[in-house]
Amino acid sequence: MVKEMRSDLNPFSLLKHNNVIIKFAVSVLLVGLAFRLLISDSFRFYSVVETSLPANEETKPESLMASMPAEEPASNDFEANKSRTSQSGKCDLFTGEWVPDPSDPFYTNQSCLQIEGHQNCMKNGRPDSGYLYWRWSPSGCSLPRFKPKKFLQLMRNKSWAFIGDSISRNHVQSLLCILSQVEQAVETYHDEEYRSKIWLFPTHNFTLTVIWSPFLIKADVFEDMNGVSSSEIQLHLDELDKKWTDQYRSFDCAIIAGGKWFLKTAIYHENNVVTGCHYCPGKNLTELGFDYAYHKALQLVFNFITNSGHNTLAFIRTTTPDHFENGEWFSGGTCNRKVPFKEDGVNMTDVDTIMRNIELEEFAKAAALGLENGVVLKLLDTTRLSLLRPDGHPGPYRQFQPFAEDKKAKVQNDCLHWCLPGPIDSWNDLVMEMIVNGGIYQ
Ligand SMILES: *[C@@H]1O[C@H](CO)[C@@H](O)[C@H](O)[C@H]1NC(C)=O
Ligand SMILES: *[C@@H]1O[C@H](CO)[C@@H](O)[C@H](O)[C@H]1NC(C)=O
Ligand SMILES: *[C@@H]1O[C@H](CO)[C@@H](O)[C@H](O)[C@H]1NC(C)=O
Ligand SMILES: *[C@@H]1O[C@H](CO)[C@@H](O)[C@H](O)[C@H]1NC(C)=O
Ligand SMILES: *[C@@H]1O[C@H](CO)[C@@H](O)[C@H](O)[C@H]1NC(C)=O
Ligand SMILES: *[C@@H]1O[C@H](CO)[C@@H](O)[C@H](O)[C@H]1NC(C)=O
Fold first, then answer.
1. Residue 70 in domain
2. 339 C-beta neighbours (distance < 10 Å), count
3. Membrane-crossing residues (predicted)?
4. What residues of the chain score a pLDDT lower than 50?
């Protein structure tokens, strides 16, 4: 209960702190010219990306489970074509369009017990459901739906990890929910803040871990439960976060993502010396830019993976776009769209473009090296396909029944995380496709 309340108070609550607003206003003035592009986003994500703690309802009536489908959904006949095209190398899974699909999502707020409150859009009262009825259709081939039964069979005795920030948690919850059609996961571990967790699928002996490591590298963060920081983040650009590296060799597969936390104000350390910062006016330090740190961080990550001496299958997921419109997260930005964009209906923001380019660049270098070392690296390039889904975010329905008492209530919107069920489920369709048709597990 306490946790639930804390997390309700928690995200986006900067606006309630007057001192912070003032600080923020001053910062914006200071920043205005030089770093405009980077900073507006840096503040946008100041508390959005992870101030929210999972507030899972762990107790649900037993009877709900009975209503869950036990059968594998009917297989679809796109598959035959897909295998052919992917073998002939013509298929780019990440380029395509969203097409209408009448089939129901794999799970609902009733059949999946692991949906985090802030992303449980149905339960929170989101009135429209059209956003659930779209399927990602890569050009030149089709993407089969995830096959939970097959997946769990393939993963018997195996262990997977999702490593990153709250979007990685969003992603792991989607996988838990999809798999819950076949077997309910049992939570076997959580850290004090419910940010890192381990689940076991007992009858398949499949272990799923989510590790909270928003920078992937060593970071000293001084944020309280409300996401208000008392001091700048100290980022060590030459040291990985042991939280994930210590466990890495025990995973058969790891889905790793960096991203938005690098946009925050941070002091950069290398060789135990402060070498600069990202957005630290008044500190007399060299502005090195978040791109500098992101390059270094990903290089370290890839270096570790390709030299880990363990054949963990590593997926690197590219950055996730947000869809705040008519304002930023802190200034009344919303995301009210009900349908996906067409391919040319939207452009990636400059920040997302910079981040994804860094990811692609470092991945390309590492993949070549990995090949030499016999380590399989896969790029899970979800940025563009996710950019086409402005309709997939909780918006105001990040909290329970936001308009129950006042239809015109001013509500903080979340246009960054994804509703469950929702478009993020397709990220797992892609993972499944890559491991099955990619010939990694058969
Ligand atoms: C499979 O490919 C063939 C030939 O390319 C095409 O005619 C057919 O419509 C495709 N089937 C599906 C289900 O996409
Ligand atoms: C699930 O969502 C529906 C609305 O789609 C709502 O009526 C129902 O109460 C929710 N159930 C749970 C268990 O949250
Ligand atoms: C899983 O582990 C058990 C116990 O070690 C073993 O008996 C079984 O053959 C394993 N199954 C697979 C598919 O590896
Ligand atoms: C479960 O899998 C692990 C390997 O991940 C294996 O060591 C263990 O023996 C398995 N347990 C059972 C009961 O099969
Ligand atoms: C800023 O740093 C430089 C080099 O470290 C130093 O020479 C200079 O005096 C500093 N300026 C202020 C205002 O502290
Ligand atoms: C995307 O950018 C291109 C080139 O700058 C521009 O022509 C186009 O109108 C933009 N599209 C949207 C939807 O903003």
1. no
2. 15
3. 20-39
4. 1-88, 442
